[in-house]
Amino acid sequence: MSDLRPLGLFDSGVGGLSVWRAVVNRLPHEATVYVADSAYCPYGSRPVNEIKARSAAVTRFLLAHRCKLIVVACNTASAAALEWLRAEFRVPIVGMEPAVKPAAAQTQTGHVGVLATVGTLHGALFQNTTRHYADGVQVHGQVGEGLVEQVEAGHLDTPETEALLRQYLEPMLAAQVDQIALGCTHYPLLLPLIERIVQGRANVIDPAYAVARQVERVLARHNLLALAASNRLSHQFYTTGKTEPLRSLVTAFGGQNFAIQAANLPTA
Questions:
Q1: Edge-to-edge, what's the strand order for the sheet holding 235-239?
Q2: Disulfide engineering: 43 pairs with which of 76, 92, 173, 225, CB 3.0-4.6 Å?
Q3: CB 43: neighbour CB atoms within 10 A?
Q4: Going from the N-terminus, what domains does the chain have, and what CATH number goes with each?
Q5: pLDDT of residue 228
Q6: Which of 183, 204, 178 is nearest to 193 (CA)?
Q7: Do residues 61 and 265 lie in contact, with contact meaning Cβ atoms separated by under 8 Å?
Q8: What is the pLDDT of residues 168-192, one digit of tens each?
Q9: pLDDT tens track of the chain, all 268 residues?
Q10: What value, to the nearest 5°, has the Cα angle with vertex 53 and ends 49 and 55?
């Protein structure tokens, strides 16, 4: 039986669109509802309890829109709230994990880099994943301070953004890192600039595609897949902040006939 209810995705801002794009490309029959909590972006520097509160509020909003599965398309929210959300809500929830496992499996030098927010790098999820999968591998964690704000402002290829990225990436490359995992969903939106800086010296890992595969597996396991597109197939976008950054990226990703609305969420 085909389940035509939408998938729900959320992030602290527009970064989760990197995951939304991967999910839609892999599952073209699925409708989606995406929430950018941009009024509270970035999550990375906020206390864990505040991130939990925001994540719960957005999850309730998505469930009110009949979403059959929730994707926490935010590494910081996944680190702070993923297991708690799964305990609080009776709906399948897929989150982000630091891509330490594939990085450690593929390294030839024994050195891998993780570019992430402070909330992700200090979170138990990152520590546990590193301990479990990166034994014998040197993991170089780097906080990408300021990068989320650059993406939210639409500054995807500016001298200021490039300077920040060089500041964070060059020390990793000098340390013989040959795998760089992007540990924030905003960062893949900077991928062309990142690859221009790296110049083939390391493999850059975008975890969005692995998340899309996991969404497909979880939907199949729970018999929730949309087996054919509905005539009403739609992608709805909501934001607690300004609409233009979201609109620009959805348009760039090929979105058509979509509407962006204000998300009526409680304030923290």
A1: 93-94, 69-72, 7-11, 32-36, 235-239, 260-262
A2: 76
A3: 26
A4: 7-96+209-262 (3.40.50.1860), 100-206 (3.40.50.1860)
A5: 76
A6: 204
A7: yes
A8: 999 999 999 999 999 999 999 999 9
A9: 688 999 999 999 999 999 999 999 999 999 999 999 999 988 888 999 999 999 999 999 999 999 999 999 999 999 999 999 999 999 999 999 888 999 999 999 999 999 999 888 988 888 888 998 898 999 999 999 999 999 999 999 999 999 999 999 999 999 999 999 999 999 999 999 999 999 999 999 999 999 999 999 999 999 999 987 666 668 999 999 989 889 988 988 877 778 889 888 876 5
A10: 115
Structure tokens at 153: 């402002």
- The phi, psi pair for 196, rounded to 5°, reads -65, -35
Cα angle 75, 77, 83 (rounded to 5 degrees) comes to: 105
Q: Tokens in use for 43? A: 């999550």
Please name the residue that has the structure tokens 């880099």: 113
The sign of the CA dihedral 61, 122, 150, 251 is: negative
**Pair of tokens at residue 191:** 């991928």
